[in-house]
Structures are given as C-alpha cells and as structure tokens.
Amino acid sequence: MYICVCNAIRESELRTAARERLGDAEMLYLSLGHEPQCRQCLADAEKIVAHERGTTDMRTLLPH
Ligand code: FES
What we know:
Layout: E1 2-4, E2 9-10, H1 11-20, H2 25-31, H3 42-52
Antiparallel strand pairs: 1-2
Helix pairs in contact: 1-3
The structure holds FE2/S2 (inorganic) cluster.
Residues 4-7, 36-41 line the site of FE2/S2 (inorganic) cluster.
C-alpha cells in the first residue's frame, strides 16, 4: 500500500526508514530520495512514523 501516491512511497518503506533513521516524515521522504508534492499524505505519514517508533509524541520525531 502506498502512503504517498505522488512519490509512490510504500508504507513499508516509510516504516523501515522510521526504524532506521531520525527525523519527521518529510525528512524520511528526503532520505528516500523524494520530496513531498501535494503534502496531503504527511499527517498520516507522521502517525505511521510515530506508531512505528512506539510513540504518539510527535516531538520524538525530530532529531535532537
Ligand atoms: S501523496 Fe504524498 S506528497 Fe502527495
């Protein structure tokens, strides 16, 4: 299933990136070689990233 239709980023790719790297969804997109286009996916992408990291605290998504 695609989380980002504009960039054809699969949910599984985003989950793997969330486990391996720091940063919010937009930063993870960049790490996958993509930039957000319409941005409609970002809110859901952030939830997936937070869930994958076992938190709902969005502050943990940012690098320290
Ligand atoms: S669906 Fe992700 S940027 Fe458009």
